[in-house]
Amino acid sequence: MYTADEVKDILIEAGVKKVTKTLEQKIILGFLGGAMVALGYLAYVRIVATTMDQYGGLSSFLGACVFPIGLIFILLIGGELITSNMTVVALAYFAKKVTLKELINNWVFISIMNTFGAIFVAYVFGHLAGFTSHGAYAHETFLITQAKLAATPLQAFLSGIGCNWFVGLAVWLCFSAKDLTGKIIGIWFPVMVFVAVGFQHSIANLFVIPAAIFENHATWRQLAINVIPVYIGNVFGGVVCVALLYYRNFRKH
User: Fold this and answer.
1) N or C terminus: which one in the chain shows less Cβ crowding within 10 Å?
2) Is residue 199 a contact partner of residue 233, using CB atoms and an 8 Å limit?
3) Dihedral, CA of residue 29, residue 144, residue 230 and residue 23, to nearest 10
């Protein structure tokens, strides 16, 4: 296992690599990143919908246990996810290894591709294939969407902070481990916790809310009102609560 100081340096170099990827790589990996998170959320919906009557509140925990599969795929196989990039690229920026322009360009492009990936899964698998449009699955999708849309902008912002605080820690723990098992465990626990708590992830919301929109249970305007403060909260959680604080703590004086 690497020390926290060593992980900081590893993540800084990873941030440099992220901003130097080719356009084709950013398109493919950004789309895959959004799709993988969406597929993890789809698994969450399916499990909660089929276990709620039998297990009650425990069903949310069971769903939270499968949600991390998306970030596991992204970090171990390949993918670009804006919420993890908020931490990794920000570390490289604080270390003066990337410019502010490179950071913003990376965030904007990956956010767009993640959005395409998440909405693609919502439409193709959720709506067309029917995995979130019928019976208990549709009901659970609508309940989740209603809960997210009921949050005030301040609540959505604060929830976004909590979410990406845990995602940033999951990335840090993943890079701390040297073996596959350690990396999976390092990702799984923080992500499972933020889902179980109910913190909001902007890209995950770009799956579940459009899934409800495609069934006429929400609007694109409501999606924007929710996702914008959640996204800003995700930025604060990843950049300030993880990247900045740990960089300040482990930087070489």
Assistant:
1) C
2) no
3) 10
Residues whose CB falls within 8 Å of the CB of residue 208, separated by 6 or more in sequence, listed in order: 41, 45, 122, 132, 141, 144, 145, 148
Helix (H, G, I), strand (E, B) or coil at 223: helix
Question: Comparing C-alpha atoms, which of 72, 69, 45 is closest to residue 59?
Answer: 45
How far apart CA 79 and CA 129 sit, in angstroms, is 24
Residues in the chain: 253
Task: Give the pair of three-digit tokens for residue 92.
Answer: 């490289």
What's the CATH superfamily of 4-250?
Answer: Glycerol uptake facilitator protein. (1.20.1080.10)
CA distance 250 to 248: 6
Domain ranges of the chain: 4-250
pTM attached to this predicted model:
0.94
The single residue listed with the structure tokens 């889902």 is 195
Which residue has 């246990």 as its token pair?
Answer: 65
**What's the pLDDT tens digit per position in 23-39?**
999 999 999 999 999 99
d(CA 141, CA 48): 10
> Which residue is listed with tokens 């069971």?
62
The answer to whether the beta carbons of residues 78 and 35 sit under 8 Å apart is no
The token pair that represents 184 in the structure block:
């999976």
Question: What's the CA gap between 184 and 76, in Å, rounded?
Answer: 8
Encoded amino acid at 25, one letter: Q
